[in-house]
Amino acid sequence: MSDEYFNPEIINKIRENTNKLIKDIVSSQQKEILEIDKDTETKIQQKKGEIIEAAKTKAEAVFSKEKAKQELDLRLKLTKFRDELVDEFITKATEKIKTMSNTKEYEKSLENLLAVAILTLSEPGIIVHCRKQDQKIFSNQFLSIAADKAEKENNVKSKITLSNEFIDCMGGLIVETSDRKISINNTYEKRIDRALGKIKRELSLMLTKEG
User: Fold this and answer.
1) N or C: more exposed end of the chain, with fewer CB within 10 A?
2) Which long-range contacts (CB under 8 A, 24 or more apart) does 91-96 make?
3) To 10 degrees, what angle do helices 8-99 and 188-210 make?
């Protein structure tokens, strides 16, 4: 059928309705497309976020691992450097001790070491062990002076006896009670050894602060 058999108004109305229907259909499809696009964009952003988060987590893990590795490496280097400093200290101390064996300074050192040991023990009977080459230093007068000093400090009169049993060391002495149950090792080797722990702790603290 052609349009001429219909009333023009009816035809126009149909056309309007048809155009409206088409527009509505197109509009509806556009909304669906927009919804699809929006949903797709959301999914893309979500996926993008997941990828970024995964990459960030991986990066943080790698960073933490690398940081821990570098910190361990730094600690090892600092420890090595500290030990080298300690070795240098021991070497210098040993060299100095070797050069002072026959000096007044060494004799004064023995006097101080003996006094400290006597005061620490605070016993009436004390035995002193020294190196064979130092025997001449520990005269009766030397021991008597040490005993008098100790008595003034702790009000305990100590009888000090020089042992015939000599010790093998760089220098210093070993003092023990007359019953030989308690002794104090004040040899230079032992004193250096006791000092090492403190020296290492102090050096570690210094190096850590510097780092």
Assistant:
1) N
2) 93/188, 93/192, 94/170
3) 150
Give the C-alpha separation, 19 to 156, whole Å.
123
Q: How confident is the model at residue 34 (pLDDT cuts 50, 70, 90)?
A: low
Q: Any idea which of 93-107, 112-126, 164-178 has the lowest mean pLDDT?
A: 93-107
In this prediction, residue 104 has a pLDDT band, given cuts at 50, 70 and 90, of confident
Residues in the chain, how many? Answer: 211
Q: What is the DSSP-derived secondary structure letter of residue 202?
A: H
- Of residues 200 and 33, more confidence is placed in 200
Q: Where are the domains of the chain?
A: 1-99, 103-199
Strand-pair category, 125-130 with 159-162: parallel
Residue 122 sits at φ, ψ, to 5 deg, of: 50, 50
Q: Which CATH number fits domain 103-199: 1.10.472.10, 3.30.2320.30, 3.30.70.100, 1.20.210.10?
A: 3.30.2320.30
- Cα separation, 129 vs 185, in Å, equals 10
